[in-house]
Structure formats: C-alpha cells, structure tokens
Amino acid sequence: MTEPGGTEEAADEPDESPERFDLEETVSIEPSSVEIPEAPTVRTFGKNATDEQLQGAIEGVHPDLLRLFVASVVALNLALLAFSLGVMVWYFEGMSRIGGALVFVGAVAGFRTYQYYREYDTRDWNEEDPTDNEVTNS
C-alpha cells in the first residue's frame, strides 16, 4: 500500500502461507495390499502374417459371433451408403422416388444392424460352441 507521500510500506511480517498438505502422512497404502490386475494380451501378426496364422485366429472365435459381426458390418455399411446417397439424390437431383427408395433401404439396413446388436446383447456367450459338440456316428 502506498502512503500519501508516495513511498511504499515495507511488510514487517512475512505472509503466513497455509500449512502444506503431506500425502504420505494422510494416506498410507502398502504396495503389497493393492492388487493390480494383469493386462490382457493380444496376438499381433504384423505385416508378414500368413493365411494360416489368420485362419487360426479366426477359428478361435465363436461361429455365431463371427456371423453377427460380419453381418453387422455389411448392414451398417449398406445403411450409411444408401441413406446418405438417398438424401443427396433427393436433395441435389430432385429425384424423390430414387432418393426416397435409397433412404428407405438405408433405414431398413440400419434397423437390421440394430437387430443384430440386440441378438448379440441378449445371447449368453458362455454357452459351449455348437461345433465342439460334434456327434460322431460309430
């Protein structure tokens, strides 16, 4: 603060800073008491992957899960393409029949993708693989 004469007052006492927070005093966690889960491992094949390696990786997947995944990818790609192309054809070219039909196809494909997801979500994937229980005729 400045005095009327224009000189500043010197602070007689230093500012009292608040007491520092010490985490080690407050929380004491023993490293052995905390269990850290192991990170999952993922097989990578790199650029030199062979067809046999990739086939072996696909064989480890439940066949119904693989079917749902591929069907969902195809249906969603169809939905995005048909819907967006339909809107553009309708708006820019004025072709309401073709554009409307494409929008309808895109909406149906999008709904089918949703049905694939619901099928995946409601299924109990802990069941055994139906291909593992092959009955052999003797």
From TrEMBL:
> Can the keyword Membrane be found in this entry's annotation?
yes
List the Pfam families hit by this protein, alphabetically: DUF7322 (PF24008)
UniProt keywords (A-Z) are: Membrane, Transmembrane, Transmembrane helix
Q: Where are the transmembrane segments?
A: 68-92, 98-117
Ranges for the region named Disordered are 1-26
Q: Domain DUF7322: where?
A: 61-119
Name the domain of life: Archaea
Q: What is the protein name for this chain?
A: DUF7322 domain-containing protein
Species for this entry: Halalkaliarchaeum desulfuricum
